[in-house]
Amino acid sequence: MEEEFDRVPTFHKWRTVNVGISEENKGKNRPSSVIPYDYNRVLLKLNEGRSHDSDPEDEEEESSDEEDEDSCRYINASHINGYWGPRALIAAQTPLPDTMADFWLMVYQKKVSTLVMLSEENKESEAVYWDKDKRTFGDLEVEVVSTDATPTFIRRNLMIRHVKKTESRSVNQFQFLKWVNRELPETPQCLADMMKEIKKGGGGSKSQTTVVHCNDGSSRSGVFCALWNLLDCAHTEKVMDVFQVVKTLRKERQNMISSLAQYQFLYDTVQMVFPVQNGEVKAVQASAADSIQIISETAAAEQADSAASSQQQEAAESTHLVAEEDKEEEPGKESPLMEDTSTVPLDV
């Protein structure tokens, strides 16, 4: 496992982060170690009318170093490709007190249907971007319509209203409770169960965007995004490749799946949802049709090396046999004792 993890490229500084580290915007970042890449950072349009009246595909053009900074606002958030299509997820840092209005503007402009809160417990007090009843952030009024608590997570239904428009939007928020002051959730089952509830409620559909956030928008959010895509692929194609999923995530945001423990957790969760039964990986209480293949990059490399070694051994054995056969004498022929065969040709 460690060998496979070490083989995943880090893609450190492979793209520019000029906008996020500018003097104007660096105060909007919680940690300085995770800055969104310029090419896929989330753009907040100042011209709101054009932003939500236009087609989402038109407004999601890639940014560049030469973009007009007067036309958009910075937020520490990155578009993440999902299994069902590009930019299905947004990985963001939990908003600061000064960036909460921008956070809700992002939710409104990008037509987000689901929020996933993975913030650390010691950061929770400064990360509450809603109120028990109503609270206004910039031009957006946020109201908590209902709250449903479980031992694993809290589900809130929020209503967003633009104070200058008649439009309202409903957003479901899932606050995960089983990730307290530790690198990983208490159990893989807890996180998998919440993901199941999110998908059951329509979150993660092809036409809707899900925002997942944590302190830096990478450590915990990276684990969530990786599992989200792995499980979608497993249910559809019956194949999961942890190596390739992590590799792709690292190209989309800094410090995604940065530890071996997080990488191992992905495998542990996959094997919990699809445990090994009689040598095959199958979904819990599922038929043989639900069996899936887990691709191991290390195992594939070892198999390739083993095949090459086997071929070399077979070639060597074949050469040896040919040489031995060439030394055998023809039937009925006797070779003179003590004869120097190096200078006397054999009869053919």
Automatic annotation (TrEMBL):
Tyrosine specific protein phosphatases domain residues: 192-264
Top enzyme category: hydrolase
Keyword set includes Hydrolase: yes
One Pfam family here: Y_phosphatase
SUPFAM superfamilies: (Phosphotyrosine protein) phosphatases II
Low complexity biased stretches: 302-318
Record EC number: 3.1.3.48
GO molecular function, one term: protein tyrosine phosphatase activity
UniProt domain Tyrosine-protein phosphatase: residue ranges: 1-273
Source organism, top-level taxon: Eukaryota
Region (Disordered): 46-71, 302-348
InterPro entries for the chain: Prot-tyrosine_phosphatase-like, Protein-Tyr_Phosphatase, PTP_cat, Tyr_Pase_AS, Tyr_Pase_cat, Tyr_Pase_dom
Keyword vocabulary terms for this entry: Hydrolase, Protein phosphatase
Start-end of Acidic residues biased regions: 55-70
Protein name in the entry: protein-tyrosine-phosphatase
